[in-house]
Write a structure and sequence with these properties.
The structure is a homodimer. Chain A is α/β, with parallel strands linked by helices and about 350 residues long. The first copy, chain A, has one domain: TIM Barrel (Alpha-Beta Barrel), CATH 3.20.20.70. The first copy, chain A, is built from 13 helices and 11 strands. An 8-stranded parallel barrel of chain A has the order 1-2-3-4-5-6-8-9, surrounded by 8 helices. Chain A has a 3-stranded antiparallel sheet with strand order 7-11-10, with no helix packed on it. In chain A, strand 10 and strand 11 form a beta hairpin. In chain A, helix 9 crosses helix 13. The longest helix of chain A is centred in the last third of the chain and has 25 residues. Chain A starts with a helix and ends with a helix. The interface between A and B is large, with 58 and 59 residues.
């Protein structure tokens, strides 16, 4: 079990579109944590290049997007039209699902994690035979039961507070996501699988809270985004330091994701559920904004505690959060015992 | 400081409309916790009767609703019309704010808590002179700063997960509420005031998590609703045991509140922000549903972890949650130390 072998219970989330880099993954592993590369939105060749760039002797994971259903054109046509001439061609894709699985069977990593759905037991089986663990991102007890039935080794329990995409299996779901704390308690009551908690964790006290609620480790996103090893665009870094409120939105990709509120998000509150069609449609707009350093048209993924993030090396994040967590647990236990 | 004198860090939330009873408050205090009476929606005479019914020698609190602005008729007129002939007369009221404050100055209780806004420093001052502490319910760092400036002794930090009304000061707010865990971390970074955590706590592990995140105690609602001492209507009790999803809705009262999804909630997703006008308009409909045992037209207030609630005496809830919390903290600390 990989989780048992970590010296610090900190996982760096796969952050597609730039923030995750091989350097970040290596630094987190070097400090006793564990990091994921983001396989989404990139070619098999690019992914292989990143895997090799992490370097020999470093254990790491790769996160795959499970393909979802193709949307009917009527669902997104009007939205794409409204995006104007800058918009790209909306298209469905399975993000090279089979080819990426084959790569990971041929060149296995320690953990393959899944987001946006549940892989089949056969797929988890192939990866496990190759020597990998299969972790599945879940946002509800029902998704957890499905992942357990498919043979998941670990559940990544993602709360409403989390930055970037919600892993919800049904991309059209309008149910309100569970907050991380009730989710952990509900899962703990129904499964014995190890849990990795993610969503809104911005301090060691947050880590301590998740461990107390029954998680074996926590996965952090925003907390690593200001690290020098991260590839976060400058305009995004600046927005993370501000006390901007965040919202769940389908404006950028057609799937619910949490971002700091900006103009683009506010102007497209009614964006349709069509992923990855909307992702491809907004891609040139986002690329232009990144180029121009325009935070108002970028997807400013951010968890609800984002302005607690600090500009410090990734190894410092791993160590500081673990040390703070130990102090927080120790202090809470002393308080409770003294009552 | 009242919190320091508790032998168990468990607070019973004020649950208006039936669930909170003097018996529940007494049982919680008897087990080493602390309970609140709900002053909202009742006359000063009724409140005084309940306060006396708690009995001598029992420390308890009273929760007051801070009056908000009167809504323009246009805001709710169409909604009330749509409710049909069964609807009551919509009207604004300050819920006898001054008279209830005067009662609490004359017959002081240990704690007066506030919801839906921030009392003035003069009002907190009067209560404190009478010997009470003033606790203010907050849902964001900005509200916390305002409450601290007004002289609050304790902040009740309420997360998105919480059942029943969100305490948000601005009743028209469309911002997404903070999950409890990020809220606790953000508040802990900005204030030294003691925090009482509330929202989605359905087990001792949840209590442990909040203490680890820096809370001094937790406030529980749903967890007490199945107790024999609670006045929860039968149809509501049954709904709490089911795995019904919950949602934030203005359908019942014109203020955002979390309830288990039922017909009435689903049919009125677009209810206006007008409190207490909508509360009075739906009151006869809810009373009829309670009478008829019809869960589909009742306001089924419930937190996100509601189906973890058990049918057990209130004292058992207080003791079980505390014991489980100690075990959870102990286990998390051992795990972290052994890495």
């Amino acid at each position: 079990m990989l989780l048992e072998s970590l010296s610090r219970p900190i996982v760096a989330a796969p952050m597609g579109g730039g923030p995750t880099t091989p350097e970040l993954v290596r630094a987190v592993a070097g400090a006793g944590g564990f990091g994921f590369l983001a396989a989404g939105y990139r070619s098999v060749e690019d992914l292989r290049g990143e895997m090799r760039a992490v370097g020999d002797g470093v254990r790491f994971g790769v996160n795959l997007f499970v393909p979802g259903p193709e949307a009917r054109t009527e669902v997104y046509a009007e939205y794409v039209k409204r995006l104007g001439r800058e918009a790209g061609e909306p298209r469905w894709s399975d993000d090279s699902w089979e080819e990426k699985l084959e790569l990971l069977v041929r060149e296995p990593v320690a953990v393959v994690s899944f987001t946006f759905g549940c892989p089949g037991s056969e797929e988890i089986g192939r990866l496990r035979e190759a020597g990998s663990e299969g972790w599945v991102t879940v946002t509800s007890p029902e998704e957890a039961a499905q992942a357990e039935a498919a043979g998941a080794d670990v559940l990544i329990a993602q709360g409403y507070e989390a930055g970037a995409h919600q892993g919800t299996f049904d991309l059209e779901s309008e149910e309100e996501p569970f907050g991380l704390l009730p989710l952990l308690q509900l899962l703990r009551a129904e499964t014995k699988l190890p849990l990795v908690a993610t969503g809104g964790i911005g301090s060691g006290a947050g880590v301590a809270a998740c461990l107390a609620a029954g998680a074996s480790a926590v996965q952090l996103g925003s907390a690593f985004m200001l690290c020098p090893e991260a590839g976060t665009p400058e305009a995004h870094r600046e927005a993370l330091k501000e006390r901007r409120p965040t919202r769940l939105t389908r404006a950028f990709t057609g799937r619910r994701a949490r971002g700091a509120v900006n103009r683009f998000l506010s102007e497209h509150e009614d964006a349709p559920a069509a992923y990855p069609e909307v992702h491809y449609a907004t891609a040139p707009i986002r690329a232009g904004a990144r180029e121009a350093g325009d935070a108002e048209a970028l997807n400013l993924w951010a968890g609800q505690a984002h302005w607690l993030a600090r500009e410090e090396p990734a190894a410092t994040v791993v160590k500081r959060f673990t040390d703070e967590a130990r102090e927080a647990l120790d202090s809470a236990l002393r308080t409770l015992t003294s009552l």
